[in-house]
């Protein structure tokens, strides 16, 4: 425990020294905040419906965002988001039974503009029947050198209360109570620099440090270990370290093309104290068409190594820490996305500044190197394979977002 805490503190200290002493260009800026001058976000309302479908699970629901400026120096916003899910993923099928639940998230924030500086504060609450999470965030954005450069800094802190639902019948969705399992605390530190190099080219350099403490594993999830007699395997609860620190660095670039299109490139690298190393890249092309249409195409590739205490099938119960969560394994995925935006004609919107109708769809393909398809050995499919002999797991998912944006 002490060793993990010291490692987390050292990781954050090293990152902060790197940020401020080596090069101010290693900074984090949220890409949507890239602009030519310090301004408040525009007044707008977004009404969204989202849907995720993959690995026998669906997640869907609405989201409403409202933002309004007042007194020319303040901009307040509020967001209401609902995630209704029905899950029968590989983890659920092999360690429990299909379930349905709903998560509700409410957040609100305010931005304050003073000269070339924007100060931001926000609060978020997320609630479901076995998880409660609260977080707050502070941010600063400062323009320099005739608004050609922007420095951003942010800090967020959150606390989670984690429970485990109780059911009289393990095959029923009816919850009769819940047991408190523990707390988790999260902190994020970010700093960034965005530079306008030419009238057509903008680049941002990004870095972030994270520290997580407390109960960091899912209380429902278990690991498999071989039974000494060779008669199969047994299960026991996952055990994670109680601290985790990570560092991420990214470069984002956007170039405006002569035919009124834009090309975006993002590169990102991540590592943490659990020995996970990850990297991803994303390419995006945005093409307006005639007066009202805009098309977007994107491709994203991601890969990571597994945590040092991850294993698909443990040889014994002696390991201090143990995890079989597929998101901590070695895997890679790719995303192909397509989007369409249509801006309504001014004569249709009755005094509003602008209204757009948007549809975005992504196809995600995930392949796991050392997480096996446990459905093949646990009676769910008919293959009848033994534990440790299953084929590597893979699945595809479809993500769709339909939303209307209104500026006023």
Give an overview of the whole structure.
The chain has helices at 2-22, 90-95, and strands spanning 44-54, 57-70, 74-87, 99-114, 117-128, 131-144, 149-166, 177-198, 201-214, 222-226, 233-237, 243-256, 262-272, 277-289, 293-304, 331-343, 354-372, 392-407. The protein is built from two helices and 18 strands. It is globular. Helices cover 7% and strands 60% of the residues. The N and C termini lie far apart (53 Å). With 408 residues, it is mainly beta.
Give the gist of this structure.
The protein is mainly beta and 408 residues long.
- How large a portion of the residues is in β-strands, by DSSP E? over 45%
Q: How large, in whole angstroms, is the Cα Rg?
A: 24 Å
Broad shape: globular
Contiguous runs where pLDDT drops below 50 for at least 5 residues: 1-36
Question: How would you spell out the order of helices and strands?
Answer: HEEEHEEEEEEEEEEEEEEE
The strand count comes to 18
Structural class: mainly beta
| Strand neighbour order, sheet with most strands | 1-2-3-4-5-6-7-8-9-12-13-14-15-16-17-18
Distance between the termini: 53 Å
Q: Strand count, sense and closure of the main sheet?
A: 16 strands, antiparallel, barrel
Helix % is: under 10%
pLDDT averaged residue by residue:
87
Count of discrete alpha- or pi-helical segments spanning 4 or more residues: 2
Annotation keywords:
two-stranded antiparallel sheet, 18 strands, 2 helices, 16-stranded antiparallel β-barrel, disordered N terminus, single chain, about 400 residues, mainly beta
List the helices and strands and how they pair.
Layout: H1 2-22, E1 44-54, E2 57-70, E3 74-87, H2 90-95, E4 99-114, E5 117-128, E6 131-144, E7 149-166, E8 177-198, E9 201-214, E10 222-226, E11 233-237, E12 243-256, E13 262-272, E14 277-289, E15 293-304, E16 331-343, E17 354-372, E18 392-407
Antiparallel strand pairs: 1-2, 1-18, 2-3, 3-4, 4-5, 5-6, 6-7, 7-8, 8-9, 9-12, 10-11, 12-13, 13-14, 14-15, 15-16, 16-17, 17-18
